[in-house]
Amino acid sequence: MSIFKAYDIRGIYGKEVDLETSRKIGAAFAHFLGAKKVAVTNDMRASSPDVKAALLEGITSRGCDVVDCGLGETPLLYFAVGHLGVDGGVAVTASHNPAKYTGFKMVREKAIPLSGDEGIREIEALVKDGVPAYDGPPGKVETQDVYAAYVEHVRGFMKPWKPFKLVIDFANGMGGHLIPRILEGHGLTTELLYPELDGTFPNHEANPLKDENIAELARRVVDTGADLGATFDGDADRCAFVDENGERVPSDIVTALIARSLVPTEPGTAVVYDLRSSDIVPEEVSRLGGRPIRERVGHSFMKAVLRREGGLFGGELSGHFYFRDNFYSDSGIIALVEVLNILSDDDRTFSEVVAELRKYPSTGEINFEVEDKDGVIASLAEKFADAEIDHLDGITIRYPDWWFNVRKSNTEPLLRLNLEARDPALFDAKKEEIVALLGKPV
Asked: Are 284 and 256 in contact (CB under 8 A)?
């Protein structure tokens, strides 16, 4: 399988991505952008400093200067590109993947992402075939500390908070780098789980979508009587939440919640949501006077539409939340800040606040290993031909009182199912029916 993915470049260090490959990626990136200056950060993995050094060799070999912003979460890289006004940037990170992986998240000017549709395929071809010859002087590398500016940027989203008790699980990922500094001095009582940076992820995987990875967080919230819990993925661009009862609050419900806070500040604003999200998201956005826009799964698609529409905010089921005033980029910590803002304006508990938004029973995402993915999608279209059908991302089949989406994963050899219905009995029946058609979940 290619290391060049739909949203980034990622592979096993030393096997699929070595230092020479990293140099070639750097040269291809600088050539593709025609960049004069770019920003670079790296995460806490043991391989990242060497991979970044090789990447910088490649970038500077094209005459492009580099601002090395040092150790940083992916949202710090996005901020650095926008804040410094450079031509692009690269975060050396493999996000939530295990320790043996390395990778690159790449953006152009204004933190506009490169993706398989625009940029990554061209860079793949340049890595394979070689970049055109360049005989000019090499670029220079300077280091610049943007930490203080980044902390102040995030704090700009804060409102006065109640003295909440909060548990945060950093999973030894990059969230432990600056988030404690951002939150300090704002009246919170905060218990930090695994804030130490450790790219071997010795305690649990840094993937908040898996229930086993939030189990300890949920227990600590209940045991300590905390008001809520939050957890971040490996590079801290995603955030997931549990309420005071230790129950997961699905990210589409968080999208609807944040929309309740932000849309009234700018009537008519666009809110982008991914097509796996509950119907409560567009219903709530419309009720508030906003414009809900349904989009394909993936940060590059979401950001492009949000930017095109000038929208205030967007959210994905995966825990990515996007903010116009954050260079249209995703930020786990800003999502947490917004949730704390909302809860501070409400006398109810977190579970009580979101209860009215948890209106429709839904599966969340269920994965299936399927050999003939296109064949299965075609068979679903035939079986449910009387439904409203679209192919924005995989296939979405909609009836008045229930719907489901089946799509091919962009990162794994899987089909993914999301299903929602208007009442529990119908939900149970339709879930059983569709799961039977797709096979055994994995």
From this structure: yes
